[in-house]
Amino acid sequence: MPVCCSTACLPATCSCGRIIIDPEYEDEAMSIFSKYQSNHARRLKKAEAINMLMTEFNLTEIDAQIIFQAFDKDNNDVMSLWEFRQFYQTVGFNAHNVIDLFRKLEEDATGTVNIEKTFDALRNIETGKGKLTDDEIEMLLKATAGESKTIDLHKFLNLMCRLKVYKGSQ
After folding, report:
1. Residues 110, 88 share a domain
2. 47 in a domain, yes or no?
3. Does the keyword Transmembrane helix apply (predicted)?
4. Residue 156 included in any domain
């Protein structure tokens, strides 16, 4: 764990921007990950990682690929144990719930959410600080949508991960 990280405020983000891994989840995550790793490499190639996500979390291949892309932070087509632990702590066995919420908010099978529906849904979501204000929701949606002004499943996963550790605007 980086020196700047404190276990007193888990789950949270470190001042360096990384999500701090909660020690409570380490053993569970390692247990799942180790079933698929070879030679104690603590890295899974893309095909192995997608297989793990499909098998352990009962995801479709397409959803597993999207989750893989969202958590392959260095875009090297390998899922490290650290990247898997981020997935496990922030989404993990709730992956279906997050994907189901995305599908409910999706705009006519376009692959993007309806921003107004998403705004309303975020009013009911608990974050690291509790309920969000309308201003916070607007800020988070704008930051997530970016210039394209759309939120696909990959961006939605990132938004939901940020919400889990969100402590309010500084």
Report:
1. no
2. yes
3. no
4. yes
Q: What percentage of the chain has pLDDT greater than the value 90?
A: 56
For 134-159, give one letter per residue: b (16+ CB within 10 A) or e: eebbeebbeebbeeeeebbbebbbbb
Q: What is the CATH number of the domain that holds 82?
A: 1.10.238.10
Supply the range of the domain harboring residue 111: 106-167
CB 21 within 8 A of CB 33: no
For 145-158, the pLDDT digits (tens) are 999 999 999 899 98
In a domain, residue 27? The reply is yes
User: Band of the pLDDT at 17, cuts 50, 70, 90?
Assistant: low
For residue 72, the 8-state DSSP code is: -
CA–CA separation, 98 and 156 (whole Å): 8
Non-local (6+) Cβ contacts of 32 within 8 A are: 52, 56, 84, 88
- What average pLDDT is seen over the chain? 84
Tally Cβ neighbours within 10 Å of residue 1. 11
Q: Which of 160, 152, 164, 153 has its CA nearest to residue 64?
A: 153
Q: Are 51 and 89 in contact (CB under 8 A)?
A: no
Write down the pLDDT at residue 89.
Answer: 87
- What's the rounded Cα separation, in Å, for the pair 170 and 107? 32
